[in-house]
Amino acid sequence: MTMQTTTDRTAQPTAQQILARCRELVRPQLAAAIGRLHPWPGEMAAFSLGWSEVNGRPVPGSGTGSGSGTVPGSGGKGVRQALTVLCAEAVGAPGETAVAGAVAVELIHTFSLLHDDIMDGDELRRQRETVWKAYGTGPAVLAGDALFALALETLAESGNPHSGEAVRHLAGALNDLVRGQAEDLLFESRPWTGPHAVQPHEYRSMADDKTGSLLGCAAALGATLAGAPAPTVAVLARAGRHLGVAFQAVDDLLGIWGDPEVTGKPVHNDLRQTKKTFPVLAALATPGPAARRLTALLTSPTPLDDAALRVAAALIEEAGGRSATLDEAHRHLDIVRDCLDSVPLARAAAGDIRTLLPFLVSRRM
Amino acid sequence: MTMQTTTDRTAQPTAQQILARCRELVRPQLAAAIGRLHPWPGEMAAFSLGWSEVNGRPVPGSGTGSGSGTVPGSGGKGVRQALTVLCAEAVGAPGETAVAGAVAVELIHTFSLLHDDIMDGDELRRQRETVWKAYGTGPAVLAGDALFALALETLAESGNPHSGEAVRHLAGALNDLVRGQAEDLLFESRPWTGPHAVQPHEYRSMADDKTGSLLGCAAALGATLAGAPAPTVAVLARAGRHLGVAFQAVDDLLGIWGDPEVTGKPVHNDLRQTKKTFPVLAALATPGPAARRLTALLTSPTPLDDAALRVAAALIEEAGGRSATLDEAHRHLDIVRDCLDSVPLARAAAGDIRTLLPFLVSRRM
Fold it and tell me: ipTM beyond 0.90?
């Protein structure tokens, strides 16, 4: 694949090409940042990013420090870093201007996955052991802290004249992120029914904090580091937040109906862990027999076996929880598009962001 | 106790009075910051600071949000926040100028205690359960993250014209802090003897990173937020780092010979956990029979019982490990004093810092 610039384009690239181009742009500085860590948290960070095995040996073809990065083992798709790069380009700057911001959001994303996996007790991520499972809880706490500190240092020391404002965006996002994670954990101990049951609007607020915050920050950092005026930054940050909520809705669909081969997690994983996700809450909020049978199943004192999990997933779908969640995702994507329409943006980058939207919602299903 | 200002002073206040004055100055903004947290991590943070019980009920007399704060249950002495306030005053600004920095270092200190207790498996701190023991590991990870994010937000949003530079100091300190904690954890799996044994100089480097970094940052934030020139900030930061290393040496003494009634931890706690601290490493580095007997004891395959721990502590003292550690602390305090002599400082605040030095080394013994 060759690098494309924003000026010599003849055809709209695909979502995969856009993500790959942004990863290539960001990867050298991301690898350099990881290289500044103490070797031990550095090894855990590289493992978490899919660059190395538990023993620190590089994953073949993961392209650590070099270019490619589209191969298996290279970690996530890099949606957050891409959003930072594309928002810088959208306000008329070269993507390079915002690479420090892209590195920071990717490091914070990795930090949050690492600590969330401890809190949630998740043992698998991307078809590999989670860091706490592979290295132990204490070391995983340390590695997360190291990534958090590294993200802050990367942004604060970037030398970009707008880094102070960028740090303020990051700080706000981090506070929201923690708040969202707190709500999500508290949802677990709340009942499925009755006056204390989690309501869909509470779920939306949690998703906005937990997932919207960092995507909103990714967009804000790109525009901020590129020197965009505050109102433009605010609009792009809002677009990023809504993209995040759409993203979370799709994650919830994958958590129930996702193919384990693709998600790297067991089938019905969220149901198995009795997580209160949007499809279930939306299904429970409907009238009718499917919701009543689902309630009976979820509130039964015996843990759900594989057969019961299949029934529960079918009842959620029957009650409309699956389609409601997809509608929810599309509703938020529409808001993203409205945001993009409301400010003047560079055509190529805005086109790239639009290309990503349907891809991110249809991913891995 | 009445508040003293730096101008109307007739006699040098005591160390206790100085620390109390700084705590009073910082407490309202610290309490306001904690109040901005989500209630759940907020409760854990208040518990960790000694302001509340596990159920969130305020500790009687801990003075949350008000003034006093010298009573039992009020958490630590507040050395870091005091250093920030005093360094601002030392460069000629009112202490108020640097309160956001003092809040940030106190939050980071609390974050690091909270996460370190998870990594070290410590169940007691200040005669109470540690946060992970009282609330669970996952919630304690979350509370630490919340404090980290809150510290950054407090500093970044302070409105102080030098907050960008202050954030850079904080970022650097956090990276050092994590590096020092990584080294400290790795020391545990290294042998007591042979070519891979931890050397005293490695221990010093770890202590400089783990404890020196945040005290150096505390000093740097005070001077930075007060608008001091960079060379003055650098000298005060260096003084803070050496104070931190002295502080760590004294902590190591307390970890072996400290009174459990005062430290809130079991007697010989560090020896029981076979921690590689300066007194032990210094003792092992000496020639003579005490060091040889100590080596035999520490490398014996059976865990040390209470009687063996008493013998080990006596052997460390006999081999000179206790006095070498006290010498180490005093050597670093001398460097602190040299730093203070090398720049022009406001007399009252510099006097306050000097008053704190012997107090911090003689504490709780």
Answer: yes
